[in-house]
Amino acid sequence: MLDESQWQNLINIYEGNPLWLKIAANTIQEIFGGRVREFFKYEQLYISEELGIILEKHWQRLSETEQKFITCLSQKMAPISIDKLLTDTQVSPQELFNAIKSLGRRFLIETKMQEQETLFVVLPIFRQYVVSSAEDLEKSHYI
């Protein structure tokens, strides 16, 4: 692959996941002749059909509470607090804490510290999957 200065950006976007990076690298090679910079011109969070299938399997393994939590987080661009999550998801603190622990172990969310508050955010590639899936579902209801 070309554009070595963009490799770290690619690694960050795909969270260093070897399989996800391999899928992205194959796409970059096949469509853009290995030019990472050109790939980034169009869409940084490309989810191929193959990667979509993998992410769908992750989604299907989540509990209803975890799916609710991930969906809520995915709708927000900025990290969100536990208080806001409790309000938005309307689950008990225990359910939310269990979901946070489970999703953290699965590397689907990140914890961020801001001042004296803990905030949460969905990993970018999984967020893109959730948002795209919701949009596709919405579109199918209008057809």
Structure description:
It is built from eight helices and three strands, in the order αααααβααββα. Helices cover 65% and strands 10% of the residues. It has a three-stranded antiparallel sheet. The mean pLDDT is 85. The protein has two domains: 4-46, no CATH class; 62-142, Winged helix-like DNA-binding domain superfamily/Winged helix DNA-binding domain (Arc Repressor Mutant, subunit A). α5 (64-74) crosses α8 (124-142). It is mostly helical and 143 residues long.
Helix content: 55-70%
* Class by SSE composition: mainly alpha
- The total tally of domains equals 2
The CATH superfamily title of the largest domain? Winged helix-like DNA-binding domain superfamily/Winged helix DNA-binding domain
SSE arrangement, N to C: HHHHHEHHEEH
Beta-strand content: 5-15%
The major beta sheet can be summarized as: 3 strands, antiparallel
Number of strand elements: 3
* Oligomeric state of the chains in view: single chain
Poorly predicted parts: none
Would you tell me the overall average pLDDT? 85
CATH class of the largest domain: Mainly Alpha
Computed over alpha carbons, the radius of gyration is 17 Å
In the CATH scheme, what's the topology name of the largest domain? Answer: Arc Repressor Mutant, subunit A
